Amino acid sequence: MVATIGVLALQGDVREHLAAVTACGDVRAVPVRRSSELDAVDALVIPGGESTTMSRLLQTFELLDPLRKRIVDGMPAYGSCAGMILLAAEVLDGRPDQQQLGGLDVVVRRNAFGRQVDSFETDLQFTGLPEGPVRAVFIRAPWVESVGPGVEVLATVPQHTRSGADAGAAAGRPVAVRQGSVLATAFHPELTGDLRVHALFCAQVKQAVAES
Prior knowledge:
By secondary structure, the chain is an alpha/beta fold. It has helices spanning about 15-25, 35-40, 50-60, 65-70, 80-85, 195-210, and strands spanning about 5-10, 25-30, 45, 75-80, 90, 105-110, 120-125, 135-140, 145, 150-155, 175-180, 180-185. The chain has a seven-stranded mixed β-sheet. A three-stranded mixed β-sheet has the order 5-6-9.
């Protein structure tokens, strides 16, 4: 049975995630905009974009409660950047009316690395991925302020960025986490051509489908 992985297609890097999931092979990638489309997938990718806009659109498209229920029921989910923010239990520096999906017992800080002009790239050691460091692209990214006891930290910001600059307050902050069937990164692997993070998620989804 081929697993079907949806990509939330309300706003953000939808095409890039669809392409990355498809390139992993042995899975089917589809956009998700409606509750009926959510019902038809085995897992969901929540892309980078603008978390407050995505929060409002989830309500407009009547996806907020159905998606929360699927996550509570154990559906695998992966969020990058804004997706990490939406999956967090608590967000700092968000809008008062911002809605959360939950799934990760973490506190994240929105736009922690600064504005668009502060975007940068660096190499991360990522637990569970073969073949060396991951090139991480951070664009108005969050970081994780604290994690609950059930959360596994997969990657943290190194002391120095790839350019040699001191990471300052960002050093040591978690930027990739996993809790049960939910995975999240503060960076954008869909923009680099490195499929390893997506392959990790796809393998998790295929295992969940095989065991269901």
